[in-house]
From TrEMBL:
Name recorded for this polypeptide: DNA topoisomerase I
Gene3D superfamilies for this protein: 1.10.132.10, DNA Topoisomerase I, domain 2 (2.170.11.10), Topoisomerase I, Chain A, domain 3 (3.90.15.10), Yeast DNA topoisomerase - domain 1 (1.10.10.41)
Physiological role: Releases the supercoiling and torsional tension of DNA introduced during the DNA replication and transcription by transiently cleaving and rejoining one strand of the DNA duplex. Introduces a single-strand break via transesterification at the specific target site 5'-[CT]CCTTp site in duplex DNA. The scissile phosphodiester is attacked by the catalytic tyrosine of the enzyme, resulting in the formation of a DNA-(3'-phosphotyrosyl)-enzyme intermediate and the expulsion of a 5'-OH DNA strand. The free DNA strand then undergoes passage around the unbroken strand thus removing DNA supercoils.
Gene Ontology MF, one: DNA binding
Reactions accelerated catalytically: ATP-independent breakage of single-stranded DNA, followed by passage and rejoining
InterPro entries: DNA_brk_join_enz, DNA_topo_DNA_db_N_dom1, DNA_topo_DNA_db_N_dom2, TopoI, TopoI_C_dom, TopoI_cat_a-hlx-sub_euk, TopoI_cat_a/b-sub_euk, TopoI_cat_euk
Annotated GO biological process: DNA topological change
Amino acid sequence: MFAVMKDTDYAAKPTFIDNFFTDWRKVLGKNHIIKNFELCDFTPIYEWHLREKERKKQMTTEEKKTLREDKLKQEEKYMWAVVDGVKEKVGNFRVEPPGLFRGRGEHPKMGKLKRRILPSDITINIGKGAPVPECPIPGESWKEVKHDNTVTWLAFWNDPINPKDFKYVFLAASSSLKGQSDKEKYEKSRKLKGHIQRIRENYTKDFKNKDVTRRQIAVATYLIDKLALRAGNEKDDDEADTVGCCTLKVDNVTCMPPNQIQFDFLGKDSIRYFNTVEVEELVYKAIEGFRAGKKPGQDLFDKIDTSRLNAHLKDLMPGLTAKVFRTYNASITLDGILHEETEDGTVLEKIAVYQRANKEVAIICNHQRSVSKSHESQMTRMNEKIDELKSQMEELKADLNKAKKGKPLGYDSEGKPKRNLAPEAIQKKVATLEGKIEKMEMDKRIKEDLKTVALGTSKINYLDPRITVAWCKRHEVPIEKIFNKSLLAKFVWAMDVDPEFRF
């Protein structure tokens, strides 16, 4: 496990090495000859791994096809469930194989051994009277078999690294149950439209409440609404030190007169949230007050916690959570930008508007990614391709001028005489090439613009798909240009939406 990661950044991190070696020593046992990590040479295993990779690369198309078919046959019986008499696809039914935990950012448990999950770790959920799925390992049995029709999970087990967390098997995103659940989620966020003005008036009034707790709840609700912050949960010492609204520390927040606040903390998945925002004067004064007299590591919101804030949100609107705010603000932002900025133009121009709107949402939700290592080389290749197409365009235009004057077109790059074409035929080629160049230029701009932004997360989790489908219908943009195959399957319930739908 460690050997195959030899050339990754993880293999050089002290925490990763220490955790790996500690867990490995437990597997080896007390009296094993291996005592010192520095004396271990993983090169022979790593070289074997490289040879195996190369061997698989060299396999013929036919061999790869046979392997795929064999794998599919083995998995077929686990891929489906029958719900109310209807055959539905199961989502991710595969249990992760043993490996070394990586985590996001500087996770304190990186390098720990993810042990093998056995049937005796797994609880199954099936209908009463349904046959219990066959246990794949002889001599093993499921931990428990339940018959709970009030939940949507089909199986679960404890995470081997964080035992308080659970890993679940659900129906696939394309299933009718999941589609129904998604639709209900977005409908709940749409309901917030009818409450949002009252909620904002409510928390604005409490910015100057004499009760510190009420004041902290008001400011926290404001930050969740305006900045799409997550509520945040308390962390144990062995969990990644990530932060949400309620768990902000004094040193995560800097007041910059007259009314700017700088936030700097690790959010979900250890992704840094670094943002300077202008806030209302009363919010600025309140945050200054919450910081006063406290040390850097102390809680900014010391009078409230996540459960207290969540209870308050549910009093404002049944089912209201920080996630409902995020979904509402993401969807309303996409809907507004698409409505205001989409003009008549080519499909490419309309897609560029959609990408800009999607980017705005991703920024609001802090959906970032690091610049890929191959970004520069990809941009170089794109520039080279564009230059090549432009050279072809110059040549075509020169040919067009000659054709209009009735002159021979001369010779190609290999010294062969060019076939004489009518000006109209060359003009068609020019138009086709112009389209190619325009598309490549647009792709290049979008790629550069989005190099640190992850658009996928908001599309999957926070943007009501009906906004996108209706916009595509109104502006005659093929939905396949916006949604990939998996999203088309996930959002099949949204496809018959009226073209005039607004969030």
